[in-house]
Write a structure and sequence with these properties.
By secondary structure, the protein is of the alpha+beta class. It has helices at about 10-15, 65-70, 75-90, 95-105, 105-115, and strands spanning about 25-30, 35-40, 40-50, 55-65.
Length: about 120
């Protein structure tokens, strides 16, 4: 079985290896009530927005590019490591989609993790 992510690079590789949306998506705090969220549907900046006219807080999401991620000080290598670890966590916690991808791309995942530091 061939890995569907083989031959992909950059953000395209991160999105291919990202866990599905939901409980196991990757979330990285970037301050000021904002976080970068990575899941299989995209990479977003999510912010808590308070509206003076509404008595609740709502969440807005904005898809971002590689340039925007660099402006936030996020490195591609770190994002890739966090993405693969998130995929493994989703797989270990019952996501069939993640488990299928882990099985299909196990060699690539092992290779990526071998280049990741402990804190990535």
């Amino acid at each position: 079985m061939s890995c569907r992510c083989r031959g992909k690079e950059g953000l395209e590789l991160i999105l291919c290896l990202a866990p599905p949306p939901g409980d196991h998506e990757i979330s990285i705090d970037i301050g000021k009530g904002r976080e970068v969220v990575i899941n299989s549907t995209g990479i977003y900046v999510r912010a808590i927005v308070s509206d003076d006219y509404l008595p609740f807080i709502r969440t807005t999401s904005l898809a971002v590019s590689e340039i925007t991620l660099k402006k936030f000080g996020l490195k591609y290598e770190d994002l890739l490591c966090k993405t693969v670890r998130g995929l493994l966590e989703a797989s270990n916690h019952g996501s069939e989609t993640a488990a299928t991808l882990v099985k299909e791309c196990s060699d690539m995942i092992t290779s990526i993790l071998s280049n990741c530091g402990e804190g990535d």
